[in-house]
Amino acid sequence: MWVIKMVINPLKFVEDTEWTQRSNNEIITHEAVESKLDKFDTYEFQGRGVPRVSEILKKCLGKDYLVIWAARLGLEEYRKESNRTLYIGSIVHECIERFLLHGDVKIPDNISSPMVRNKIKRSVENFIDWYNSMISKGYIIRIIAIEQQTTNPWFGGTIDCIMNISHPDTGYNKNFIVDFKTSKSISIDYILQTYSYLWSVRWNKCFYDPTLPDIDGIGIIRIDKEAVKFEDLFLTIQEHTEIMYDIECSVVSMINWYYHILITEYNLRIGKRTKERLL
Description:
The chain is α+β, with helices and mostly antiparallel strands and 279 residues long.
């Protein structure tokens, strides 16, 4: 297992150039970040707003396919479809949480669209199929937390589920941070997002709250909205060391990139205003 990394500062790559590295505290309290605090209104760490991890991913990775999709649909139809997708995902998550906590499912009665209701129903049934397939293989699933926020000085997010998966016959016993997805595939940004939650929990356990659970890995469960289909991806630090190390490096690099881009954009705006005043 490797040491939890802090945000990595840039190296002094030109020996004869004076280069003052900023500390982590100097980065997160920079004027560029301070100017954004009113937009960081969802999560906070010790009373200070922090960006959503999804915002960091969006700025770093982009979503070219969404731009193409929006162009094909048109702006108004894109907004409708996007809101519909978010609504379906939200209700599916609520149904999954109820199933995991109480063992039953109740789809809201006030869903007027048969298409939307069918997609929700199919998604939930696919999740239950996944769950039953795990049980039939002898696994025991125990829920540690549902809809759990995690924050740190750099970002915040909400974990769908922390679950323990064990197998009494093999001795398998792991704690996973799990994300539920109703998309068409498991993409790299889902993996990075889920791992960022693991990173945050481990960071908090190391520096602030030793009572937090040990997390062994991440899991993504994709449940189809239309076909009778599910797929999952589970990765553990112990069994998938190399790929998990690369994922962590990617997450930490994105955090670093995000904050330095904020500072760069801010300095360029300030520089432009100064130049305009001088002219």
